[in-house]
């Protein structure tokens, strides 16, 4: 048989990877220790050394989520995998899911849950705000959902959803509480057990500074019990909690092959989690909050207006109203081209309306806050020389 | 709020990754160029450099599959993702799928397709054999499937499924042909366009020697058309062909965010594909076939019996009957402990019945064939000193 398709010339060029400062909503820059770990040799998916690394990661994830859940593991997928896996493990056809909508991720969860056959209801927060406990209570009483889905860190709007009291409310109404902590974990407190959260997942490439592609997730006994009482199989083999959980050794049964895990990503994630443990959660969170305050003060001094309400502001992703007459895309492109610094635009409901600046992991330092403020100011000035900064900002 | 779960001590130990020779059914050892690439800095999922690397990979995957399909891209998941994505994009509730069963992967595909609501039918090959064209024809005429699923390289049994003529048969019966090439691509010829295969996927961590976690996949115009005529949305957002394909720039529409791809895995895969292109497919395949012959000759000289029929033998994974009275697990464990060489046992229907030796990528060289033969012989001898090798083998 003749070979009709030739090898492409483009692959003869060397791999080109510039070093950038990733101050968008993620991924963040991975520290050298994480990058170096990923150049280590490949291991098999059932080798004892691999299983040991997985056990280390499980222990670390339990600390990060502040949980003792046995069913704590990772999915071999991006953060979207966490959203899919929580929804499809806990929902069956016709089940009512209530989605707290504070931005783009609410829409995404609604799309996924619809595909899984659920009866999807939304409760929408007002712009730039989170949902207050009474709003959540009313929505639960109205819709009587079997699952409530909330996004703790809504990266499209920069809104942080408060969670205290929601778990108890859900238990009183026989509802499971699922929380997306992709953009928030490590930057703001999250107490899975104390807050009675039934299922949660996070992103590896945000505060943790590991590469994307592997997603920590945890289910408590109520979520496991809901799974056990399913009438139908989970619709996706790849997301099936018991199958993945058995591979991760979560249920006291023999560890069996489910899929071929990426040892490379395990190495990177393990080192990233180890660094978070060394720093400790309270310090990690305080560092992100301090840096966010410095960033917000700097932005205000430039005369810019933040999008999220002050009480609901996420430390890890800051959203800034695009001032009238300014082309956000030009600013973002100028910052990248001139300084190799990432400053992002909006996403979903905030597309074209906001800038987004991320402070995550290694990028949450005073130096990098000052750097991104400087780059932001210079880029706005370059794109729109007549932009009217207040006097305090022009002295920066 | 009090922090009740402490940071685990295990994460204070340094990351331990031994260097092993991976002569099982995969993953194989990644070459240094691939490993070094993965220590490069993280890039954002929509940065132009990332999109360029994705374009390079697309071009390389088209060459590897020997296809001009526009809808050629990768999934951010292990090879299982390829199986899930082909099935759930091309099947709707009640559709008949016919699965050619030559081992474990047929069972896995049946499990997945059942979860997606398909009407699953199996046609089983006899032990150690592939399905002949007349058997496939009869099964198609009997079941009238809308999708036929075949595994070209059945890694559990070491059987290679012939594909020539199957595509035409499927077209004549308005059936789509899906082929799993996870364990075969690059080790045995595969001509996606010439053989009229409608959807195919492969593994990154086998012949290519990239890390697991990213899965090349391709759909032709017939598969895309089937997607277009769906009555219902694809059940899984993460596997949705049009959403992932748009992110990969396959359909001439603007590239939009679908998920956060792992730049690390892209770097590794790009370099692995570049190396395959530099060697060329015909040379790569010839190298695997030559090494397989050397391995098979060596095993026969040891008096061992191969599991797969000679005409159906896969070059990349060789299955060997476990001789009576020999404990396969002891042999495998001895080889690993003493020599850091991986020799695997069976999987699914061959569990406990066979050894599996893989020759993939960098491990398909005469030196490594001789090494694994030596280690295999010595391990058998160590575990069972009275094992009766033929005279020719004891001279090795």
UniProtKB/TrEMBL annotation, chains A, B:
Any single GO CC term annotated in Swiss-Prot or TrEMBL for this entry: peroxisome
Pfam families documented for this protein: Aminotran_5
Keywords recorded for this protein, A-Z: Aminotransferase, Peroxisome, Pyridoxal phosphate, Transferase
Cofactor(s) this protein cannot do without: pyridoxal 5'-phosphate
Post-translational modification N6-(pyridoxal phosphate)lysine, affected residues: 206
The keyword Kinase appears for this protein: no
Gene3D superfamilies: Aspartate Aminotransferase, domain 1 (3.90.1150.10), Type I PLP-dependent aspartate aminotransferase-like (Major domain) (3.40.640.10)
Catalytic activity, as annotated: glyoxylate + L-alanine = glycine + pyruvate
EC number: 2.6.1.44
Domain called Aminotransferase class V: residue spans: 24-370
Single GO MF descriptor: L-serine-pyruvate transaminase activity
Main location, first listed in the record: other
Record-stated family: Belongs to the class-V pyridoxal-phosphate-dependent aminotransferase family.
Protein name: Alanine--glyoxylate aminotransferase
Organism of origin: Anopheles melas
Lineage, uppermost ranks: Eukaryota, Metazoa, Ecdysozoa, Arthropoda, Hexapoda
